[in-house]
Amino acid sequence: MPEDQKAHRSRQRPVSCRFCRSRKLRCSREAPCSNCVSRGVRCELQTPIRSSSKSRGASEPELLERIRKLEDVVKSQEARRNASIERQSDNSDIHLQQEHPSNSSPLIEHLDDDVAWLRSICNVQDFSDKTPSNKIVFRVCPIQQIIQGQQSYINQDPFPSSTRVEPLRCVWLPQYAEAKILLEKYLEDPDHVHHIAHSPSLPAVLDNIYECLS
Questions:
Q1: Of 52, 78, 104, 179, whose CB count within 10 A is highest?
Q2: Domain containing 116: what range?
Q3: Are residues 208 and 147 in the same domain?
Q4: What is the pLDDT of residues 186-208, one digit of tens each?
Q5: Starting from the edge strand earliest in sequence, which strands make up the sheet with 168-173, in order?
Q6: Is the domain of 205 the same as that of 147?
């Protein structure tokens, strides 16, 4: 047999298995080899790697074609996603435009009332009849009603001589018996956030306040 054919055939034979190479044993180069069979281990043969410039050259165009196809798929998916986002944005804008008149109409009416009120102030000579009052009144009610929430303004003018009715800021105080209980609690259980106060004179101050209210 010519030497070149022998060399070609020898290059085609499989190399030793992984186990024989690691133990430096003579491998029969079969699947499985005799050494792996006798020791009961898994035989892993490794075929020789052929380095052919022709095969690499033939696979490069195929790889480039696959990459180009993948890029086309990614671009088409991005285009569809952008189109879907634009449609959703357009639909949301149309929905907001349809809802805006109904939702904003109470606000527009309120603004119209404010504009009319300001215009009436500018058209009259006596500004005192239109400006809000800075008067404060004090009212007494059970503390439970204060907790539940009382109105901060009342539409009552305590001055009979006045010719106009205006909302007055109202400060609600608990009843006298409840106020005394709160004061006793305040004096008996002080803490670090309490203001400095003269304890002996506080009951007299409380009595004077409620006498003035009565």
A1: 179
A2: 60-128
A3: yes
A4: 888 877 767 778 889 999 999 99
A5: 136-140, 168-173, 153-154
A6: yes
